[in-house]
């Protein structure tokens, strides 16, 4: 049994890609009973949840259904009656065509929180258009602001899919559940990844309104324009990151790194930034990354080595805090945030599609006769 802060909450996840699985992982890590509905793959090969290394699929149980069969849809409606929330990541209209749209679901369970995670939202000129993270953040202003002076660079899919879609969906579901438990009234959540990226840019829209941010990439405080908030290559080809924005930390960096030249005076004089950046690059290139770690990790210089995915789990800070866990040989991020009384945990490796057809449905109150009939009919 889970003892996380979300223990006792039942959530249905209609399996998808990208932000949907990550949202399900976050909720499961914190104790929710997340039942994932996978598409039945038949005998043509593994289903979408069949790779035990797919970290974002961890912790949930999987039931594989043929959603083109009425028996499978009837089962989904029964499960909806028992759920606190569900979420799906299909294009607008798909769930309605399956017979599982919000109106039908709320007819079964008026207190249900129904989460809809999509790229462009449930309405608007682009709502039915295909897209991915790069497209959603392009329209938000975020992609324009990230990269080199010459080229916007996609920040993996952290800004749209994960930092935006997954987290805002999880927040929306939990807020909806709180409201539902207080009032008995469910609702539908329209979570558009494009709009979550817009929301994440709130501070920068504020800075622009105050005249503290321009649309010229690489000229601003946090976009690589400032010499003291940047990445630098070391003698051994490895990289470090510095970010001493506050003047007291900047002076500590200068003292520790020997940055005594007048060009480093007047920290916030933007006319000096390009020259200071070029000079700082030459200074940091004189030592190895390990040398700079020895000099700067023990002082308040706002410094860190830039670690690869292979290196990060081995850093002493991460080891001391248990920031990574090993689940059946797969090193992966540990559940966060940390709760003092009800800590989260990874309950098990990512499941195979349909691995829990029997056990999960039994726990959700589906009797053996109905489970047997679902298998016999080919719906499960």
Overall description:
A six-stranded parallel β-sheet has the order 3-2-1-4-5-6, sandwiched between helices. A three-stranded antiparallel β-sheet has the order 7-8-9, covered by helices on one side. A two-stranded antiparallel sheet has the order 10-11. Helix 5 (133-140) crosses helix 7 (193-200) and helix 6 crosses helix 7 (193-200). The protein is of the alpha/beta class and 380 residues long. It starts with 9 loop residues before the first strand and ends with a helix. It is elongated and about 80 Å long. It is built from 14 helices and eleven strands.
Question: What attributes does this structure have?
Answer:
six-stranded parallel sheet; alpha/beta; three-stranded antiparallel sheet; 11 strands; 380 residues; elongated
Instruction: Please report which band the strand proportion falls in: under 5%, 5-15%, 15-25%, 25-35%, 35-45% or over 45%.
Output: 5-15%
CA radius of gyration: 25 Å
Q: Assign a percent range to the helix content.
A: 25-40%
- The average pLDDT is 95
Q: Could you give a short account of the major beta sheet?
A: 6 strands, parallel
Poorly predicted regions are 42-46
The DSSP helix count reads 14
- What string, H for helix and E for strand, traces the elements in order? EHEEHEHHEHHEHHEEHHHEHEEHH
Structural class comes to alpha/beta
User: How many beta-strand runs?
Assistant: 11
Strand order of the largest sheet: 3-2-1-4-5-6
Q: Given the C-alpha coordinates, what overall shape results?
A: elongated
Q: How widely separated are the two ends?
A: 26 Å
């Amino acid at each position: 049994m889970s003892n996380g802060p979300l223990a006792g909450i039942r959530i249905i996840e209609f399996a998808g890609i990208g932000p949907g699985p990550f949202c399900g992982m976050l909720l499961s890590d914190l104790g929710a009973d997340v039942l994932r509905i996978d598409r039945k793959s038949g005998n043509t090969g593994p289903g979408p949840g069949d790779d035990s290394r797919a970290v974002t699929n961890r912790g949930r149980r999987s039931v594989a259904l043929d959603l083109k069969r009425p028996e499978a849809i009837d089962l989904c409606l029964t499960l909806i009656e028992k759920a606190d929330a569900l979420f799906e990541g299909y294009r607008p209209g798909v769930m309605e065509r399956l017979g599982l749209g919000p109106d039908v679901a709320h007819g079964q369970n008026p207190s249900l929180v129904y989460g809809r995670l999509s790229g462009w939202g449930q309405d608007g000129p682009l709502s039915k258009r295909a897209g991915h993270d790069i497209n959603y953040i392009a329209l938000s202003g975020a992609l324009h602001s990230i990269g080199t002076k010459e080229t916007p660079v996609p920040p993996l899919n952290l800004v749209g899919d994960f930092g935006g879609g997954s987290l805002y969906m999880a927040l929306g579901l939990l807020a909806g559940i709180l409201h539902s438990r207080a009032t008995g009234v469910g609702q539908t959540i329209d979570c558009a990844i494009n709009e979550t990226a817009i929301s994440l840019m709130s501070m920068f829209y504020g800075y622009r309104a105050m005249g503290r941010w321009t649309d010229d990439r690489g000229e601003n405080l946090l976009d690589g324009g400032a010499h003291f908030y940047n990445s630098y290559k070391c003698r051994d080809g490895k990289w470090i990151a510095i970010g001493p924005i506050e003047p007291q930390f900047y002076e500590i960096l200068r003292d520790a790194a020997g940055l005594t030249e007048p060009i480093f005076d007047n920290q916030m004089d933007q006319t000096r930034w390009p020259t200071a950046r070029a000079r700082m690059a030459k200074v940091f290139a004189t030592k190895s990354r390990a040398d700079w770690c020895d000099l700067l990790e023990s002082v308040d210089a706002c410094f860190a080595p830039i670690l690869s995915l292979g290196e990060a789990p081995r850093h002493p800070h991460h080891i001391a805090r248990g920031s990574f866990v090993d689940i059946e040989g797969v090193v992966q991020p540990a559940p966060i945030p940390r709760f003092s009384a009800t800590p989260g945990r990874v309950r098990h490796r990512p499941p195979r599609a349909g691995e829990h057809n029997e056990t999960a449905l039994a726990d959700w109150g589906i009797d053996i006769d109905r489970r047997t009939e679902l298998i016999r009919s080919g719906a499960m």
